[in-house]
Amino acid sequence: MEEVIIATKNSGKAKEFERIFHEKGMIVKTLLDFPEIEDVEETGTTFEENAKIKSETIANLLGKMVIADDSGLEVDALEGRPGVYSARYAGPQKNDEENIDKVLEELHGVPKNERTARFRCVLSVSQPGKKTVTFAGACEGLILTERKGTNGFGYDPIFFIEAKGKAMAELAPEEKNKISHRAMAIKKLEQNLTLNFGEDS
Q: Are 123 and 191 in contact (CB under 8 A)?
């Protein structure tokens, strides 16, 4: 079976990648499988910059092809925040519940039609000696006033998808993996690279 390395220690992201790539007959390894590798500092100002920093750093360390993901929530009424700071919006402890509480507090009193938002994801694919390529995906929605659902992770409980009539956290994993920002980015990656990811496109 082909192996793909995903540069993340986020267990929620790892599970999503595992589900998506397992369907394609691929084995997924993440940075959780390489505990000796320290966290890569995300110094970029965009999702693309951060994804590239992670994939290129880890690819050079391991000498293998690596896919890195940088993603987050953009809320229009908050001028695009939390954006690249989504994971640590309420502080460096990266606590999902505290992050949600902060967004809900900042949107207090904002009417439904002004609570538009999107999840955005950029995948960066790096191989030693080759040019890094990136693929982006997005999923549009609205920010709820309270949590709904128990699936997923991050901001999923307050992200409402009008076409589904549900919060992201109310969707089954299989359903989420068809419409999510990450799924959209992976679909673009598939369209542009050979399935085993080890050959040139």
A: no
| Residue pLDDT, tens place only, 67-124 | 999 999 999 999 999 999 999 999 999 999 999 999 999 999 999 999 999 999 999 9
Domain extent at residue 179: 2-192
- Binding-site annotation: residue ranges for Mg(2+): 41, 70
- Catalytic positions, written as ranges: 70
Domain total in the chain: 1
Whether 197 is in a domain gets the answer no
Known binding residues for substrate are: 8-13, 71, 153-156, 176, 181-182
Q: Which two tokens stand for residue 58?
A: 């880890």
Please state the pTM of the whole predicted model: 0.84
* Contact criterion met (CB below 8 Å) for 44 and 53: yes
CATH of the domain at 73: 3.90.950.10
Does residue 58 belong to any structural domain of this protein?
yes
Residue 164 is which amino acid? K
CB atoms closer than 10 angstroms to residue 156? 24
